[in-house]
Amino acid sequence: MRKIFLLTLLACCMLLGAAAQAAQITDVKWGVNKADVLRIVVDVTDTAGYAVDMDGNTLNLTVNADKGAQVPQSKAVKSSLADSLKIVDKGSYTVVRVPLKQRLLEKSYKAFVLKKDPATGRPFRVVLDVTPRQASYSGSGAATTVVSNRPVVSNRPTKNNSSIKKNTVIKTSTAADKKADKKKSSSKKKNDNKKNTAAAKTETTVNKPVNKSDADKPAVIKGNGRFRTSGGLDGKIITLDAGHGGSDPGAIGSDGTKEKNITLAITKIVKEILEDKGAKVYMTRTTDVDVFGPNASDAEELQARVNVGEKYNSDMFVSLHINSSVNKNVGGFSTYYYPKTDNDLRLAKNIQNKLAANFGVDDLGVRQANFYVIKRISMPAVLVEMCFISNEKELTLMKGQWFQKKTACLIAEGIEQYFA
């Protein structure tokens, strides 16, 4: 089933618009280190998404960029793993195919990106490392996915070699949290993200003023330990929350794209993937509706979402959102948690690690926040911000099926890793 999904994912690369296809591959290089690890480096003129899959004994690296005319269709390779590379121009994307001479074990390959470095003249790069069976490999990849070997902490470097320091992030939110924009224009969220384009960038996010009497209330924590945290996905109960909906469109892009529609589309795909792996999945909403019903207060609507997770005695709760900022240059993934159990942070790290390692966008890290739906629910819970609708490049990406399917797949893999 996973192979079928990945093949579908690769086919969907063609669906991205021309605006997202400005990147061009200028070179494909390879090298072998002393441990016989084969490294393939794809030079790209601009940020580009990518995916990795196995087709029989062929390892495919798909890069969402045009193949430059100067790039050959094949290259000879001297490695115990492969004798050649094939660079296939698919029009709207390019596939680097590696016919393997040996069958790979799981965790035998990983992919990541290196940001453009003007100081050294190095372009944006997509890197694929392939390890032979006899070599020692310490990565955390999976047989059909790509992951990063970088730690997941809030102060780790972003992909542009700058830092988001934990102490420079301010996040205040309460019972009004993500639904605070319901009665105001949703052309932007109540987030004020400031990003310095100098060498050390930081982001500051501040939500709307809060009701202190509500913010001071303790989180609803049952502490009965009924939720399961290991043993694989089979039989686990998961509640997925598609952010906003109904009378609340969420953030709105420059072309009128509504956050509520993107979150619902991605949430449905995550549900399908998890159910295919044996999990029992519930959604707070499956259509464009208010979960509580018409004329609900912010707290009533948010509590209605929490109630779904509690009703089904869920093992985890995952809320999916799209971010927005007055700064149109801010972009990237971030995952929020509230430390009410020993497992909230672990869940956030698992999901963020998958997302951060597999897209050519900024990694804004794992953050602590007191969002209503993750604070007032008893089981481990996270809120995922899947890029910025206010960023034109990311807006173009998130409207495409390629982005939606890939994001959903990575979130599902992060959830699966949590239960492993």
From TrEMBL:
Key words of the record: Hydrolase, Signal
Any one GO BP annotation for this protein: peptidoglycan catabolic process
Keyword Kinase part of the UniProt annotation: no
Molecular function as annotated in GO: N-acetylmuramoyl-L-alanine amidase activity
Domain of life according to the entry: Bacteria
Signal peptide bounds: 1-22
Domain MurNAc-LAA: 306-416
GO terms under cellular component: outer membrane-bounded periplasmic space
Disordered: annotated segments: 136-226
Record InterPro entries: MurNAc-LAA_cat (IPR002508), N-acetylmuramoyl_amidase_3 (IPR050695)
UniProt biased composition (Polar residues): 136-170
CDD domains: MurNAc-LAA (cd02696)
Compositionally biased intervals (Basic and acidic residues): 176-195
PANTHER family assigned to the protein according to its UniProt record, in alphabetical order: N-ACETYLMURAMOYL-L-ALANINE AMIDASE (PTHR30404), N-ACETYLMURAMOYL-L-ALANINE AMIDASE AMIC (PTHR30404:SF0)
Name of this chain's protein: N-acetylmuramoyl-L-alanine amidase
Organism: Phascolarctobacterium succinatutens CAG:287
